[in-house]
From TrEMBL:
<keyword id="KW-0029">Amino-acid transport</keyword>
<protein>
    <submittedName>
        <fullName>ABC transporter substrate-binding protein</fullName>
    </submittedName>
</protein>
<comment type="similarity">
    <text>Belongs to the leucine-binding protein family.</text>
</comment>
<dbReference type="InterPro" id="IPR028081">
    <property type="entry name" value="Leu-bd"/>
</dbReference>
<dbReference type="Pfam" id="PF10518">
    <property type="entry name" value="TAT_signal"/>
</dbReference>
<dbReference type="GO" id="GO:0006865">
    <property type="term" value="P:amino acid transport"/>
</dbReference>
<keyword id="KW-0813">Transport</keyword>
<dbReference type="Pfam" id="PF13458">
    <property type="entry name" value="Peripla_BP_6"/>
</dbReference>
<keyword id="KW-0732">Signal</keyword>
<dbReference type="InterPro" id="IPR000709">
    <property type="entry name" value="Leu_Ile_Val-bd"/>
</dbReference>
<dbReference type="InterPro" id="IPR051010">
    <property type="entry name" value="BCAA_transport"/>
</dbReference>
<dbReference type="InterPro" id="IPR028082">
    <property type="entry name" value="Peripla_BP_I"/>
</dbReference>
<dbReference type="InterPro" id="IPR019546">
    <property type="entry name" value="TAT_signal_bac_arc"/>
</dbReference>
<feature type="signal peptide">
    <location>
        <begin position="1"/>
        <end position="34"/>
    </location>
</feature>
<feature type="domain" description="Leucine-binding protein">
    <location>
        <begin position="50"/>
        <end position="391"/>
    </location>
</feature>
<dbReference type="InterPro" id="IPR006311">
    <property type="entry name" value="TAT_signal"/>
</dbReference>
Length: 405
């Protein structure tokens, strides 16, 4: 049986205020990028009780393209709940903060949110800050749903066989992605010889690479080469030339889209013309690679553009632009998951923010079924969603849904 962490010394909730979102950087400066999304969640501020929900992500810094998408997606859903009357007549107050892509800032933001009386958290976005929050939030038994952090350790410590009881995720894990793409490469595409290139020392990249290699070999395939590079590198030609000499049929490239674009361009320049495969870090690749470079390429993702027009239209209406990447739908589903739990706690008549309330939120999520826009999903024993994966290919340089797999 898995061990479950649930320590209960929650800080006292702050006084109830009007149902308007508050967006700040943890250092105290405001950020206007998503201010319109989190300000005045409902035109009529509730005169009675409200329910405070934290939404945390990197709205500035190197990974803000992901953080902004998650925060916008989550905020959109929470505002829609308010527009439909809230939860049992109570409005949701959105407290959004910018952790600037930094784990220390993330913890600082979280403790400030707790001081302000949040009952649950949507966040964080990338793996390292989310791991820090998973450890910190256990002391509060704070219900926490990350939209997009994929490292297995976010919800489950394999070394100690311990589940982080209060933490859930809306996205699939690094091991899941690596295994899924190995299965797709070998079983669906028929490749038997693969190479891998990935950033060393990064949980996401290494997690996908390791599981791809293990699964591909277990199926009977051969990994002809594994190449790594370091954070900050911009020249990959040495590694790609080595791969070229090993004559793979396909290259697995589990990296983020900016680096993927550079890798594909440099692969083309040295004559490495085999197809490339990737994980959800490829989401956002549009504009960073050409149609020729993406010929016969595939990657897995949680959401395919066009699969939910209602969400996409609502996002554009709210923010004046198309949704930027698949992190926005995940943010939406993470918020939906939080609200699913809060609804159960409210239906039970519990006092928002106390120990029984938070535990009721956690228990409801753990046993619930979420009818999300990235699919209908339940949660497994490690608090990971059980759902299908969207496999995307490219129409020119534009990612399109190939199939669910």
């Amino acid at each position: 049986m898995k061990k479950m962490i649930s320590r209960r010394n929650f800080l006292a909730a702050a006084g109830v205020v009007a149902a308007a979102g508050v967006l700040t950087a943890c250092g105290g400066s405001s950020n206007s990028t998503a201010a319109s999304a989190s300000t005045a969640a409902s035109g009529a501020a509730a005169s009675g009780d409200t329910i405070k929900v934290g939404v945390l992500g990197p709205l500035t810094g190197d990974v803000s393209v992901y953080g902004q998408a998650v925060v916008n997606g989550a905020t959109l859903y929470l505002k829609q709940v308010n527009e439909k009357g809230g939860i049992n007549g109570k409005q949701l107050e959105i407290i959004a903060m910018d952790e600037q892509g930094d784990a220390t800032q993330a913890v600082t933001c979280f403790t400030k949110m707790c001081d302000q009386g949040i009952t649950a958290l949507v966040g964080d976005v990338t793996t390292t800050p989310t791991l820090a929050l998973a450890a910190e939030s256990a002391d509060y038994n704070m219900p926490m749903v990350t939209a997009s952090a994929t490292a297995e350790a976010v919800t489950y410590d394999a070394e100690t066989d311990t589940v982080n009881e209060n933490v859930f995720r809306a996205t699939f894990t690094d091991p899941f992605q690596g295994i899924k793409m190995a299965d797709y490469a070998y079983q669906r595409l028929g490749y038997t010889k693969a190479a891998v290139i990935f950033q060393k020392g990064a949980d996401y990249n290494e997690g996908l690479a390791e599981n791809f290699v293990n699964e591909f070999e277990s199926l009977g395939g051969t990994i002809v080469d594994q190449e790594t590079y370091s954070e900050g590198d911009v020249d990959y030609k040495t590694q790609l030339t080595t791969i070229l000499g090993k004559a793979p049929e396909v290259v697995f490239c589990p990296n983020y889209y900016q680096e993927v674009g550079q890798i594909l361009a440099q692969a083309e320049s040295i004559g490495l013309a085999v197809p490339f495969l990737g994980g959800d870090g490829w989401d956002g690749l549009e504009g960073y690679a050409t149609a020729d470079q993406l010929k016969d390429a595939y990657f897995c993702a949680n959401y395919a553009k066009g699969s939910n027009p209602d969400f996409e239209d609502a996002y554009k209406a709210e923010y004046g632009e198309e949704y930027p990447n698949g992190f926005a739908p995940l943010g939406y589903d993470a918020a939906m998951t939080v609200v699913y739990g809060i609804q159960a706690a409210e239906d039970a008549g519990l006092a928002a923010g106390d120990d029984d309330y938070k535990q009721a939120v956690i228990d409801a999520i753990a046993g619930g079924t979420i009818d999300g826009i990235t699919g209908t999903f339940t949660f497994d024993e490690h608090h990971n969603p059980v759902k299908q994966t969207a496999i995307l290919c490219f129409d020119g340089a534009t990612p399109v849904l190939k199939e669910m797999f």
